[in-house]
């Protein structure tokens, strides 16, 4: 094993497929007049989401960030929104992003995200475009039935008989027992989100996107992340995720443009970090200033390129489509 | 004993679960697009050999189990306990019937066995993959008789019963694969 670790994890068929998919993505957006951009991987601010861990690096200088801790981006979302606020129009980026603490069959701590923003689109119109792109990229390799859209609530009702917006921790725990989902030690008794995540990952996700693109949309308000809330009973986050053959491929939002609301969410996430004993992250003031200046009405999505390449190549793990996955990096 | 974070989980890692020593068979990291990450783990209870599924929140820690595999020489059975010796230190260890289990029928004196120790006490015993034993009893087969095709039962010196080809006779020495319990060949001494 030691002696062959210098060799790539992926074969050259897979590496050629990656190159081909990248070329087709660029052609797709060129035809639609979406501008390719590049934004920095290193930032003075970082994501506050307690479930995402940024790599921190120290910059010794010279220049204005001398002696600072800088963070490798977990997605290019914040600087791309600054471009949108500055008037870029619709943009896309193929970015290498970094997430600490994520490795496995479907995770590698650095990976490639295709992220794009469409000015004037709502999240449903963006789902149409995600369908167009993924259908085109998977043509000939993965047979696809008609795409499906399923609300988060409908998915929980279909696979668990539960209403995710109303169920209590006790009801969610009973649902886990009913469907033989092993309950981890130390689950909270006052927060339903980790329970929803447990049921989603163990019971629902493996059944989503069987031979078709399935969009899960309209998330609980507590899981809106950077999406707008749509008022209602209950209000829902205008967020979607794309699944194919049980694998999550993309996450999208109708983008939140309210700087005050965004600041409140950042602060709430940092408070959650404190409660969990995690370090607080520096809030991106540039993003908040850009939102205050005015973000055009838009929807954006991040698609895991390596996972898409894995499905297109008919492989079972990311390591088979990465030239050098973590264990060979 | 050390504790292990889920970040250190990998197959073969020995951890304590519900008071029993266990070995991780398979570890999968799962995470929704945004939200809590989990480790879905298949775990073998080293006492019962049962495999169960468990899930941990990623980042949580579990207690390690002091479980090691050592090569020990089987000495004898005193009717209640099986006695083994470490061939390097000459230290002797005794294993109860529950630890020896099905391995008992393959244990011949002086055989080197892999013994799994939990807190220094034998938890399970794996016999050598191949053992050489003498047949003490088998029906005299008729050469050329292939009816039945599956051979005939033969009782070995330890009491184990294996199927052997019809041409193999009492008093002969044979090689057996203990993992399948199948006859491999005759052995010329």
List the helices and strands and how they pair.
The complex is a heterodimer of chains A (329) and B (189).
Chain A: H1 12-31, E1 35-36, E2 42-43, E3 56-58, E4 69-72, H2 77-85, E5 91-98, E6 110-119, H3 123-138, E7 145-151, H4 152-160, H5 169-178, H6 193-204, E8 212-220, E9 229-230, E10 236-244, E11 247-254, H7 259-276, H8 285-294, E12 298-304, H9 305-313
Parallel strand pairs in A: 1-5, 7-8
Antiparallel strand pairs in A: 2-4, 3-4, 5-6, 6-12, 8-10, 9-10, 10-11, 11-12
Chain B: E1 3-5, E2 14-17, E3 20-30, E4 38-45, E5 51-57, E6 61-63, E7 67-77, E8 82-85, E9 92-95, H1 97-100, E10 112-118, E11 121-126, E12 130-138, E13 152-156, E14 161-164, E15 173-177, E16 182-186
Antiparallel strand pairs in B: 1-6, 2-3, 3-4, 4-5, 7-8, 7-10, 8-9, 10-11, 12-13, 12-15, 13-14, 15-16
Description:
The complex is a heterodimer of chains A (329) and B (189). Chain A is built from nine helices and twelve strands. Chain A is α+β, with helices and mostly antiparallel strands and 329 residues long. In chain A, the strands form two sheets. In chain A, strands 1, 5, 6, 7, 8, 9, 10, 11 and 12 form a nine-stranded mixed sheet that branches. The two termini of chain A are 14 Å apart. The model of chain A has no long low-confidence stretch (mean pLDDT 96). Chain B starts with a strand and ends with a strand. The model of chain B has no long low-confidence stretch (mean pLDDT 92).
